[in-house]
Write a structure and sequence with these properties.
alpha/beta, globular, 4-stranded parallel sheet, 4 helices, Rossmann fold
């Protein structure tokens, strides 16, 4: 029987599905991440996605810098698997199937910074 890995979800609010696996943390705060992150797998759900974000730099701080912080902490702690979420804001609206290697057509600040964050993960 295969060993089931421990996973933890990083978000600013409690997961309804996995409340005991949620790490309530601001991904912009690397010290808090270092203190909180544990386990074998990280599921990063942290993202700034509201349409009315002010200042606009908050998208970059949370989505891009936050992704970089999660990767740094994972590497430091020997965690080799991070699951990263994406959305239609990165891939764009389409009436056909979309694949990870398909066209990326972000259409707002959220989508642009999530795409940048995905490049952080790819280079990790």
């Amino acid at each position: 029987m295969e060993h089931q890995k421990d996973f933890f979800i990083i978000d600013k609010k409690q997961s309804q599905t996995f409340p005991d696996s949620t790490i309530l943390c601001d991904v912009r705060d690397i010290a808090s991440l270092k203190e909180s992150v544990k386990g074998d797998v990280i599921i990063n759900l942290a993202a700034e996605h509201r349409d009315d974000v002010r200042p606009k730099s908050l998208y970059w701080e949370v989505n891009v810098k936050g992704a970089e912080n999660v990767c740094k902490v994972a590497e430091e702690k020997g965690i080799d698997k991070i699951i990263f979420t994406s959305s239609v804001a990165v891939y764009g609206f389409t009436y056909k199937e979309t694949y990870e290697d398909g066209d990326l057509t972000p259409f707002n600040d959220y989508g642009i910074t999530k795409l940048e964050a995905e490049k952080v993960y790819i280079n990790w």
